[in-house]
Amino acid sequence: MSKNIIITGGAGFIGFHLSKQLEKKGYQIYLIDNLSRGQLDLEFKNFIKKKNIKFIKKDLKKKLKLNIKNIRYIFHLAGSVGVENINKKPYQSLINNIITLKNIIDFNSKQNNLAKIILFSTSEIYSPLIKNNKIKFPLKEKNKIIFENENISRDAYYVSKAINEKLIQFSKIKHLILRPHNIYGPRMGYSHVIPELIKKILNEKNKKTNKTIIFSPNHKRAFCYIDDAVDQIIKLSLNKKIKNSVFNIGNMKEEIKVIDLAKKLKKTLFRKSKLIRGPITAGSPFRRVPDMNKTQKAIKKYKYTNLNNGLIKTLDWYLKELKR
Ligand SMILES: NC(=O)c1ccc[n+]([C@@H]2O[C@H](COP(=O)([O-])OP(=O)(O)OC[C@H]3O[C@@H](n4cnc5c(N)ncnc54)[C@H](O)[C@@H]3O)[C@@H](O)[C@H]2O)c1
């Protein structure tokens, strides 16, 4: 049985954590990334020295020509992400996310042993239904997918992922569609809720006002620690019986308001700054919590890292990183 795996976006947050776990299972792993967002930091540099890891710096907007045979799984994580990034470059982001998948699909046509392509979609796919109060919580995989009829830059992200879901379905390639919901943990960069709050709270100590503004304070998110997300991803992906289906990735038990999350971080960081309720960030869904029943039943696992423990591990990493 072939043990070759490709992970696109392998230098990014989820890609790197996923690679580390798959490496332990003895796979030969090819990590592809153009480093537009992923980092060639010390942790990553040390990891790619391992003999069963090969890092290939490539832009997947260009046709993929690799002389690797017998690939068993392709995990496709590469793409444009992050609200700020998408808002700045909606056109380029939409193109990037669609072309990279098309090139992966074309590359696959030369492979004989592929068990499946694992496509990383997003929880943002439910956003238009949430915005229009047309959905029940928690968010089930079988909900409809709708597009807004307005020209909103942020929407380029969920639109690209919705198109990608259809692309992979129509390609007739065996696949798995995963929709991650607010995954957090070490080495996730700074443009996600948790690291943004950490940085903000830590920075306030230098300012005279001693105030930290928290945007969308009453919006609720359910956070899932990276190790749990990777565990779900691997169990679903390597299961031979699971294919051509959609699964949420996340933790429905750890739902919290953004302001309460900020309070928790402030307390853990021993900061005294005053938290001020700021305005709502445009386009941010007021609530997001996945229904995890389908995933949990498939992988037979129901217990996950609680938010306090996950935050401590994450803070530990960021405090060391910020001192470097
Ligand atoms: N982190 C989350 O909570 C979350 C939530 C929903 C969906 N997702 C999805 O999961 C996937 C991974 O997310 P992440 O948080 O690890 O993001 P990330 O930005 O850390 O990783 C994505 C990687 O893709 C690379 N990339 C982008 N365009 C490329 C191209 N043209 N060619 C080659 N490499 C390219 C970037 O350099 C980056 O390293 C993404 O597809 C994202 O949409 C993540």
Task: Provide a quick synopsis of the model.
By secondary structure, the chain is α/β, with parallel strands linked by helices. It is 38% helix and 18% strand.
Describe the structure.
This protein has helices at residues 13-24, 42-47, 83-88, 90-108, 127-131, 156-170, 193-203, 226-238, 258-268, 293-299, 307-323; strands at residues 4-8, 28-33, 53-57, 71-76, 116-120, 175-180, 183-184, 211-214, 220-222, 224-225, 245-249, 255-257, 274-277, 287-288. It is α/β, with parallel strands linked by helices. The chain has a single domain (4-188, 224-252, 288-304), classed as 3-Layer(aba) Sandwich (Rossmann fold). The protein has a seven-stranded parallel beta sheet, with helices on both faces. A three-stranded mixed beta sheet has the order 12-9-14. A two-stranded parallel sheet has the order 7-10. α7 crosses α9 (258-268). The longest helix has 19 residues, at 90-108. The chain is globular and about 60 Å long. The site of nicotinamide-adenine-dinucleotide (NAD) has 29 residues, from α1 and α4. Residues 9, 11-15, 33-38, 59-61, 77-81, 96, 100, 120, 122-123, 180, 182-183, 189 line the site of nicotinamide-adenine-dinucleotide (NAD).
What tags apply to this protein structure?
single chain, 324 residues, alpha/beta, Rossmann fold, seven-stranded parallel sheet, three-stranded mixed sheet, 38% helix, binds nicotinamide-adenine-dinucleotide
